[in-house]
Amino acid sequence: MSGIRRNVVWNDGCKYDYSNIPKKKRRSGNSSASTNSTSTRREGSSKIPDSEINQLQDAPDQSMVSSLSDSQVSVEAPAAVQASYPLDNFTSYVTQLRQQSAITMCDPLATVFALPDFNNHSLKLTVNKYHIVERCSKTVEHACEWFYCCSCSRREQDLVMSLSSVIVGGVSRIRDNYCIHIKAVIQIVNDIDVQYNLQPGLKEDDHSYTIPSGFADLDSLVEQTDAVFKVYGDGIFCSKSDCDSNSYGILCCGKGIKCMTCSQGCQSCSHVKQLKTLLSNEHEIYSQTLQDTLQSVQAILGDSSVSQSGSSPVCVSEKRIQFNVLPGQFKNTAGYNPHQFCQDDSTVTLVSCESCPTCGSELPGGDTATETVSWPCSHPPLVTRNFVFKTKVYQRPCSSCDTNLPFDGGADGILNMGTFLISHEVLRDYMYHFLQTGMTMFGYYQTLSKHMEDAGVAGFQQVLSYNKFRQSWYEFEELLDIDYSKGFMCPLCGPAPKVIICDGTALSFRRELLPWQQVLGESDSGTETAYPGSSHRDRVFITNQRGRKLLDSFVNSEVTPDEMAELVRIVPPSLATVIKQYQHLKTCPEGLKSLLGTLSKNSPVCGLLHPSEELHDFVQKVADGAAISDSVCDMEFLQKHIPVLFDHVRNGDSSCVAEELRPLLLALLDVAEKPFNQNARVPDDCAGQRGVNPDLISFFPALGHVRSRGKYTADRGRNDVKGCSKSSSGHPSLLPGMFLLNCGHGINYGFEVMVKHESPNTPFTILRTRFKDVPETVIYDNSCNLHSYCLNRDPLLFKNTWFLVDRLHWKNHKGCSVGYQLSRYPQYDNVNSQVVEQCNSALKKLKGQLSYMNPANFMRQAKLFLWYKNQAVIKRM
Question: Do residues 711 and 812 both lie within one domain?
Fold first, then answer.
């Protein structure tokens, strides 16, 4: 068991490895059992005083954060808790803390916890008021027990922390005053204590754990070093300070930084100062998690950032940078080989030799040493892969228009950031590491710093801090001369792919960084026309659930005579005629199981018979008794369009479809065509739900907007019939993920960041708004629900589109018509339905860094990575 790594992640806090926490020594005899029973009895008998209950009734401060939605799920509280506090309130509090992962463990030893308060009137978490619950180990009657204190009562907190390690009397005084926050923590944390065997114990240091003999040679336990980390709530962080007795404080970042622990809205306590110090020291190299946290804080603070490091560098370079360069193209340039440009004092002289962008005049050549004496000059450092050089950078005047031309550096393989210069070689090196291995920016910077240290470059982190390197990379990325519209379009499919494969991935960024007002746009006025779509009842062959259930029993097991009579009575007459032929068998013949089993599903018939003029004529031909197995063309058409009927004909004794099945086929065709009997399609320019801002969180460079989404009757409520469900286990602080669109050849056409959990609305909106002609085939792991979603809104637009479930996920669709099964159709045998899954696998390695970027940087990095993957696929074509 010692080799098992036990990891626990509490909300957005750090990930702790519990294999490093020593286990409690078991006492001999019944001492352990008596300790547990004593602890449980005393904790359960505590009551909450009226003074503490009154604190829970404070209304939330809407100026800081918005309230959360109520939870509808309940958990059972201990009997003692029920007696001491209203069941509904305590249960709701614990339930919401569990469901929303709202408790954050602040230290790796599980002794300090941060959690939001609870509003007794609205029964909601109050995220503008937080508390710190701490616990310590004390000995009572020769047994070690946990004692808790909460920041909601500072006097009580001071009292508990001042007690010695051995308590002789007055234990009930402490237990009886446990507040609702402590009781909630006890109930939730107890599960972790049991799972990881975390028990109170006494040791001379500050850690309340007994060290077993197996850990005797350990010098110390692994401690959490990050001074600031994320906790539950938008813009809420925890700061660990060693400057005062209250070492943990909850900070709210918005228009400035305020501490909610020391005093509501305090801006000068040690916790705030600690965060401001970290933000202002850009030359320090922190851990990856701390660096990401500080970036999140800076993104939230925006213009009100407290950084004292001065103004950010501004990129001077404007020339576009080629992604692919010729071998040796920059071999003899100052950016790649600055040694040959050095003067006697090891200074590199850099002068622009480009044409004037104002008047277009060519700049004359000449002796730089004699002609640049009077030119404006600066001395920024030049960072290359192994050295840092001193420079003289000149602004060259144009003789025609008297314009001073700054040094661009593009032709020399240099990016001019004003206060410093950085070689393209460095930035390309990171770019290739990122694209090939998913290396983080911070990881590469640390590696570069080590190289510079080995090369003897002193003070490199002062010359090029991580923030400067990060900004220079984003500027370099913006200057890359990439035609994304061509890079996100398959050369074989063009701008209108006939087959698309789509799916979602969990890669996304933090909710708190999303500007909701920009994303959601204007709300509907409520006066727009809502289009009705089609009715699910009109799309299924057997409209009553009882009939489908009996037919399923007839196909898969057997039915009683009474059930057989009922089945014949309640199903459509054309199906009843077929069943009567075999009712004496009590079960369905093998040759009909596939067809009749499909009719027992609550799926649209148009998912089995895909309406078209060609299909209509063919079914009519079959119903007239044509010998279809005598014709290669007829059997091939049947195999590609109605594979379930193809199997029946292939295994039958006649070249024709059985006579009793022919009326059934005509009835099925009638139901399949019914959703498309409307006279008019939904207009392209109809008003209604605008959805998200397409320029902010979606990227489809080859698929521009062609129509609006529209507003539909089905949008007013949960009118979609329940079918297959796609589970979405959401992250408490990240957006649900990205939705990607690929063609059948594996080329990605773009992506959209989902602001809500993956649902059919995402692909529906993309298909309707970005495709003039909707693709002929949509392959998606939730195609069954997507098909119904589209039919409920704009059936005519999707009349000629087949919705199919990919091969990997079909096994999960037990209740769906086999008409959605991709592997049934031979024309798709060569289609790789897993291209999106494979793309998702490549994107997973980016999750650690992209998840903490702001939306603009996230979109920039994601599109570069996907573009590069597209280029690799195109080269293999």
Answer: yes
Domain boundary residue among 676, 711, 736?
Answer: 676
Q: What residue type is assigned to position 85 of the chain? A: Y
- Check the CA dihedral 754-758-763-769 and report its sign: negative
Pairing of strands 414-416, 421-423: antiparallel
Residues facing 742 on adjacent strands = 501, 748
d(CA 540, CA 141): 71
Q: What domain range is 258 assigned to?
A: 228-304
pLDDT tens figures, 302-326: 533 434 344 567 899 999 999 998 8
Do 417 and 316 form a contact (C-beta atoms < 8 A)? Answer: yes
d(CA 319, CA 340): 24
- CA 665 from centroid of its chain's CA atoms: 45
Contacts of 287 (CB under 8 A, 6+ apart): 225, 226
Give per-residue burial for 510-549: e unless 16+ CB within 10 Å, then b: bbbbbeeeeeeeeeeeeeeebbebbebeebbbbbeeebbe
Same domain, 69 and 91: yes
Range 39-45 contact pairs with CB under 8 angstroms and sequence separation of 24 or more: 39/143, 39/145, 39/146, 42/145, 42/171, 42/172, 42/175, 43/80, 43/175, 43/178, 43/186, 44/78, 44/79, 44/80, 44/81, 45/80, 45/172, 45/175, 45/176
Q: In the chain, how many domains are there?
A: 5
Q: How far apart are CA 671 and CA 665, in angstroms?
A: 10
Domain co-membership, 720 together with 790: yes
- Residue 684 and residue 644 share a domain: no
pLDDT (tens digit, 9 = 90+) per residue, 703-744? 999 988 888 988 876 544 455 655 555 566 788 889 999 999
Name every residue whose Cβ is closer than 8 Å to that of residue 80 and which is 6 or more positions away in sequence.
43, 44, 45, 46
Rounded to two decimals, what is the model's pTM?
A: 0.68
Query: Do 207 and 300 belong together in one domain?
Result: no
